[in-house]
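Readers of this paper often ask what the protein records in our data store actually look like. Nothing more is needed to write down the fold, since each code stands for a local backbone conformation. Below, we set out a record of this kind in full and without editing:
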Amino acid sequence: MRAVDRVISHRLDSSVPLVGQVSHYIIASGGKRLRPSLLLMVCGALGYRGDQRFNLAAVVEFIHTATLLHDDVVDASTLRRGRATANEAFGNPASVLVGDFLYTRAFQMMVDAGEMRIMQILAEATNIIAEGEVQQLINMHDPSLDEAGYLRVIRSKTAKLFEASARLGAVLARSTPAVEDACATYGQALGTAFQVIDDVLDYDGDAAEMGKNLGDDLREGKTTLPLIIAMQRGTPPQRDALRHAIENGAPSPDRLAEIVSIVRATGAMDATREAAAAEAMRAMHAIGMLPSNPYTEGLLQLAAQLLQRRA
């Protein structure tokens, strides 16, 4: 990851000072760096040691960072990773335009790999992520959204870049199509589990540890899995309260506490964690054909530990 950070620092260079300022602001704010780590771990598991793994790990981090910049503008978010979002610090126009810079810089870096297959994977992933963002926008304030519709969005919006990161590691290692598909399945399942747990933590996390406000999804009108399950299991009065909160968003602290109470009382929190556990198991099963080594063991541990995250 230190090698990846050196690539990131070098490729953030721009003749326009504001570009570097905003880019460094959001990238230096931390984050889990799961996507680049995933790419590096798959490369390690499959025996690839070339420098392109550092370049492509930086590419997926740039794409992810660009989506964060745009997401925070769309959601009017003010807090991420424990400090002001870039749009809060620099304004919406700067955030959108620097997000565009990161996307285009990522595509410049893809060309360095010199492989059309890599370009194809990342171009498709970026396009599907954009479609997922638009579909999420359409789904806002919709209390009728079901689990299938919810999963379609998160597998496009969040899991797709996990999937692409894992697949790229296999492509760099010149793996067979079967191994490549297994790695992609692992990434998709891991990314899905990550987002499902993230949606649980919006109601059951530690705001200080998470670095964002609890209840943000509901304030923005997002119908996530805990709400979907609670809507299915709740009494008519509970469903009415949930429907009103989803349709109107921005609940008061008292109303938010009521919604959290309903989600817990209906068992929706536990059911959502069980859904995440099923995805984590799917991820672990997918990489059964990978060689046995410390990197593969790390991939298994990553899926298992994901279920324990509190931030």
